[in-house]
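---------- Forwarded message ----------

FYI, see the Outer membrane beta-barrel protein record below. Original note from H. follows.
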Amino acid sequence: MMKRMIFTAMLLHCVCAGIGADSLTGKVTDEAHRGVAYANVVLLALPDSVFVAGTVSDADGCFTLEASAPGEGLLRFSCLGYRSCTVPASGFTGEVTLCEESVRLQGVEVVAERPVHQLKDGALLTRVEGTTLSQYHRINDMLAVLPGMTFTVSGEVEVFGLGTPVIYINNRKARADELQQLTPQDIRSVELITNPGARYDAEGKAVLKVYTLRRDDGHALLAEHVSEQGRRYSDYETLRYDYWNRKLHVSAYYQYADYRSVVNQPQSHELALGDSLYLYRNPDQGDRRDTKQHTWYANADYELTARHVIGAKVEGTHTRDYTFRTGSLAYGWSHAPLAEKDIDNDYLNRTDVYHANLFHNADWSNRLSSALNLDFVYNRNRYRQATAETSSGEWLETESRGKGNLSIASGQLAFDYRPASGVQVGFGSDVSRVHTHNELQSTADNVAASLYDEDEVRAAAFADVSAEAGSFSFRAGVRYEYMQMKFRDRLDASGNLTRRFHNVYPSASVSYKRNGWSQTLSFSSRTTRPSFRQLSNAVYYSNEFMYQRGNPLLLPATAYKLEWSISHKPFYFSASYTYEKNHLSTCHEEEAGNRIISTFCNYRRIQYLKATQNIQKTFGIWHPSLTLGISQPFFKVMYRGEPLAYHSPNCTAALNQQFTFRKDYLLSVYYAFYSGGDLGSVSIRPYQMLNLELQKDFFEKRFSVSLKAYDLLHTMKFREEQREGNLRFTQTEDYQLWNFSVSLVFRFNQLKNTYRGKNSSASDMERM
C-alpha cells in the first residue's frame, strides 16, 4: 500500500507542472547583501499607483510575484526597520537593496532598535542575526536563553513544561543532532511554536523552526576545537566545507567527539507487599562513561530553474559507548538486613545510523508550490552487558548480549496554494514504514531470551487554511493519521499482536495585531507515540532483584491544548491548558522472589496549567533577558491501595545577561533557578545553575575564542522521588556537568548550511 501511495504522490507532484502564470522573481537584500526576510513586495499600476498584486519574501529574502503583466508598473519594497524603496518594474534587475531606517537629530544618528522577540501568528519569532545571540559559540547555549526554553539537568535544551521540541531547519524537518551541526552565526531567526497546527506531524508538543543565513557565492570553511575539563577531560573537533554558486550548493561535514564523564546515581527502593516492607539501597552507585562518536554528512542540491530545486543528502553516525558501573546493594526486610552485595557492570554499546534523503522543491506558479521528500534510514545496534555480583564470598556472574536492526522508509508531499492575497491553503500527505528486529540472550535466570519483529505502517493527510482580514488573521486545519502496528514474537507465537489506530487532529487559531500589540488564541491536538525501546519486550538486567523491560501493549497518548499568547516590544506572555489521555510514563511491577520490574504503562489522564513570561531590553552595553515560568500539574496514581495526588507546581526563573564591550569582547552571565515540583508521578527537589562565558573575536570575526565555566556552583543535581503501585523509589542523578572549556572557531567566508530537502522520517528517527 505504501508503494502505491508514494507513486500516487509523485504523480500528483509532476502533474502540477501544467499549472503556471506570468510572474516576476527576485531577492530583497540589506546593505551587507544579506537577504531580508518577510519584506513586503507590491506591484502598483501606472499612472495612479493602484494595487495590482503583492507577496512577501521568504526567510532568504527571495520572492515570486504573480501578475498578468509583471513588467509594467512600479515595484514597492518595504520592511520593518528599513526605508521603503520603489523602482520601475520594467527595469528591475532581480535584486533590490533596502537601507536601515534612521533619524538624524542635531548631528546624532539614532537607528531604530528592532525587538529581538516578536509574536507572529502565535509563534515566538526571535531575531538572531545582528544581535548578541549570534555571538554564542554553541547552539544549545543560544537556544537556552530564548523565552520558553530551558536547560535540563542532563545539560540538554527543552521547551519549558513541554519537553524536547520537533525541529525544522529552513522548513526541513531535522533531528536534534542536525541542529548541533549549526553555529549561532549561521542563523537568521528562530521560531518557537508551542501550539502547532495541522501541517506539522501530530507527534510532538512544540516546534522549533530555525532559519539560516545565505551569503555570497563561493567557498566557505568552518573549523572548531573544544576542550572541556570537568571531572574528566573531553574534546570535540568539527570541520565543515560549503560551496555555493548561483545554482549549485555542495556541503560536507565531519565531527569527532571524545566525551568522558563521571555520573553519581545513588538509589533506594521500598517495596510494600502486605505487611512486609522490603528495602533495597544502593548508596554509592556510579558510572564512568567513555563515548566516542564520528558524525558526517555530504549533500548537494541544484536549481534546475529558478522554480525547481532537486537534491540529495547522505549522513551517518558511528557511536561506541562504554560504561563501567559500580555499586553496592543492601537488601533487607522490615528494617532487618538480609544480604549485601557488591555489583560491577560493564556496558558496551555500538550503534551505526545511516540516512539518505532525496527531494524536489517546486514553485509551479506564484500561487502553487510543492515539496517532495523521500527518506531511508538504517540503524544497527550491538549491545553487551557483563554483571558481577559478590556477596559473602559467593560470586554470581551474568552476561547479556543483544542486537537490533531498524529500517525506516518514508515519503512526504506537501502543497501550498495562495488563491488570493492574504489567503493560503496547505495540504499534503506522508507515509512511512518502520521495521524493527531485536534479539537478546542472557545467562541470568530471571531474564528470558527474546527474539521478535515489529512493523509499523503510518499514513497521514492534512489540510489547513489561513487568511488575513485587517488586523486579524485566522488559521484552521485538520490532520488524519492511520497507523497499523504488528508485533511478532519469534519464540512464542501466543505473544503476537496486531493493532490499528485511526485518529483525527483538529487545530485552529486567531491572531490580532494593533499598535504594536500582538496576541493569539489557539487550539491544537497532538499525540505522543511510544519509543521503540518502550515497545520492546526485551529485558535489561540490573541485578538479582531488579530489571527493566518494555511494554508492547502501550498506546499512543493524545493531548488537547488551548493557549493564549500576547507580546508588545520587550514583553511576552503565554498561558495554556493541556489535557492528555493515555499518558505515557514509567511504572513498576513485582514478581516472585521480591523482584522489582521497571517498565512503562499508560495512565488515564494528566492535566497542566502553564504560563511563561519574558521581558528583555537593551541598556547600552547591557542586554538583560528575564524569563519566568510555572507549570501546575493535575495527576493521580494509586500508591499502596490509596489514590495519591501529584499537584505540586514547578517554577523556573532564568536571567541571561550579555555585556558587549569594545574590541569585540562579549561577557555572558546565565543564571537559572528551578523550584522543583511534580513531573507526572515524580517529585523533583529544587536545583540551580550558573554559567559564565567570555568571548573575543579576531581578524574581523574570522577567528573566535571562548572561555566558559559551566555549572559553576556544581548544583545541577536531579533529586527525585516516585511513589506508585507498591513501590517508593528515590534517586539522585548527578551527571557532574560542571566544567571549564576553551572553544576555538575559525571561519573562512562563512556561509550557512542550507540543504533544502526535508526529512520525512525525523519523527520516527527520534524514537530510536
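H. also flagged this: Residues 12 and 413 are 9 Å apart (CA to CA).
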